[in-house]
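Predicting holo structure, magnesium ion bound.
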Amino acid sequence: MGATIAVLSQKGGTGKTTSVRTLTDVFRRVGLDVLAVDLDPQGNLSDYFDVDPEAAPTIGDVLAGGAKAEEAVHDGIIPANLSLAEAELMLAGKMGRELTLKRALKPLGERYDLILLDCPPSLGLLTVNALVAADHALLSAEAQYFALQGVEQALEVIELARDGLNPGLQWLGVVLNITDMRTVHSREAFESLREHIGAKLFRSTVRQSIAYAESAERAISILDHRPDLGADYVALADELLERLRMNEARERLKPLAEAAPRS
Ligand SMILES: Nc1ncnc2c1ncn2[C@@H]1O[C@H](COP(=O)(O)OP(=O)(O)OP(=O)(O)O)[C@@H](O)[C@H]1O
Ligand SMILES: [Mg+2]
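Done. Tokens:
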């Protein structure tokens, strides 16, 4: 049985989609079968993977009940577009609305080693669906003064999911994203998070670089565009596989880490 991981944050622009995109790449490079699911009507993940904008069906069709999840997989990703906003509205008035994604993804759980869910920048119904469908939650936080507040709010939503529909949901931890550890600002954000959440804070942080915008624009993985920066995600993937107890995959990651040392 594979594991499903929801990647979320309380606010927008914390690097969630870049994380899902890049972690999917890293995990695939060590031979894992990974499905990436775009749960954001903006469709950024679909763009980052260069999915044909006309690809159909999408996650919107799946949540609206018009297609099966397996039919919506295009090259290892279930894409999203604006129709997801409509599907979300429709879902809001339905019984079992929080369980829709879980039910839809169930037949796929056995087919993949990992399913990564890219949440939209709000803690609304789509994110709740992701948290109910997931085994694990991974928080992304931008290195800002208010990072801790955002993490606390996201944790409250995780708690709600646990108390209600998904008692088995595990919190993997928080990755500090878009950092510049040369600045006091980023170092303080890291320290304040570490004080509050201890070992739940990943040791690896993702450095800020303009190369990410270039890589998104060209739909080229940062692992290929700038392997020296991609090394941050290789290190993060290593910590994740450790927490997921996927030791064989972790072994296979070693040559990748050696091939692209951090700059
Ligand atoms: N490490 C990084 N350094 C600099 N820029 C980054 C980094 N990671 C992502 N970005 C850029 O920051 C912007 C937001 O990133 P991304 O789309 O991954 O965030 P998000 O949390 O998914 O946003 P949203 O909340 O809108 O879904 C993008 O323009 C992306 O290219
Ligand atoms: Mg996003």
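The pocket of adenosine-5'-triphosphate (ligand 1) is lined by residues 9, 12-18, 40, 44, 121, 178, 206, 208-209, 212-213, 216 (CB under 6 Å).
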